Amino acid sequence: MDWGGTPEGLRRTVESLVGPVSAATTAPAGLNAQLAATLDVPGAKVFVKGLHRSHRSAFKLANEACIAPSVLGISPRLLHHGAAEDWEFLVFEHVEGRHADLSPGSRDLDALAGVLRRLLTVAEHDTSASERIEKRWARFADERDLGLLAGDRLVHSDLNAGNILISDRGAVLVDWAMPARGAAWLTIGFLLASLIGEGLAPAEAEGWAQHTFPEWSAARRTAVDTFVAALARRRAEQAANCPEPRRAERRRQLLPARQWLRFRGGP
């Protein structure tokens, strides 16, 4: 939804916080918000996300608001969280940058590795917003196996190129709609699935992680096997149940998970 198509009361409320909007650019991609736009306001730009309270994903905005204080310097600063006209909205600082290039040989991986090292240390956060991974994935693996994924670290469970911005200050992570709580290496696992989806062979992706992150090197083989198998099952379910027009994207995300699973000896 374009900024001009949202309820007038919502626009007035946001403008009361950031100033009059002289121009608005709707984000070209994204799945987790009805409204996602960059707003030109006096002396600055801001980014606004919004969802009607009746939308099934409205709770995700509250997740992002809860996580925001714990990811300062890792993600854009949250400026405002409010409601108007039965809409929930978030206003973030605007980050001038581009989406990350995750293709083989990309130099963006160095910048991404730097911000991930900071994220892997984040344990203290609002746990009301981050569901334990072993609970979220309970139907995708045996309870005992899922215990291998448990931990206290904040996990970004949707680490794809669209949620990574490359700016002049380095890599910035966005979209904490579905944070999780678990072992530190899980965030790296979600990234590797995206790298494989962009053309990196599973062996190369795992090799990069082993040389870059001690947390990945220390992960037990059985734990990684459990993660990859559960990820493939979850993405298969998403692809089967997702309505159009998002189904094609869900199917595309399923392919690298299955490729990675076969590499690790799975069915």
Outline the fold blueprint.
Layout: H1 8-18, E1 23-26, E2 35-41, E3 44-52, H2 59-67, E4 78-84, E5 87-93, E6 97-99, H3 108-119, E7 131-132, H4 133-136, H5 143-146, E8 153-156, E9 164-167, E10 170-173, E11 179-182, H6 186-197, H7 202-212, H8 214-218, H9 221-241, H10 247-263
Parallel strand pairs: 7-11
Antiparallel strand pairs: 1-2, 2-3, 3-5, 4-5, 6-9, 8-11, 9-10
Features:
267 residues, 10 helices, 40% helix
Describe this structure in words.
With 267 residues, the chain is of the alpha+beta class. It is built from ten helices and eleven strands. The chain has helices at residues 8-18, 59-67, 108-119, 133-136, 143-146, 186-197, 202-212, 214-218, 221-241, 247-263; strands at 23-26, 35-41, 44-52, 78-84, 87-93, 97-99, 131-132, 153-156, 164-167, 170-173, 179-182. The strands form three sheets. It has a five-stranded antiparallel sheet, with helices on both faces. It is globular, with a radius of gyration of 19 Å. 40% of the residues are buried. The mean pLDDT is 93.
- Range of strand content: 15-25%
The structure class reads alpha+beta
How big is the Rg?
19 Å
What are the secondary-structure elements, in order, as H or E?
Answer: HEEEHEEEHEHHEEEEHHHHH
Number of strands: 11
Q: Kindly state the percentage of residues in helix.
A: 25-40%
Give a quick account of the main beta sheet: strands, pairing sense, barrel closure.
5 strands, antiparallel
| Strand order, sheet with most strands | 1-2-3-5-4
Separation of termini? 41 Å
So what's the overall shape? globular
State the low-pLDDT regions, or none. Answer: none
With helices defined by DSSP (H or I, 4 residues minimum), what is the helix count? 10
Mean pLDDT: 93
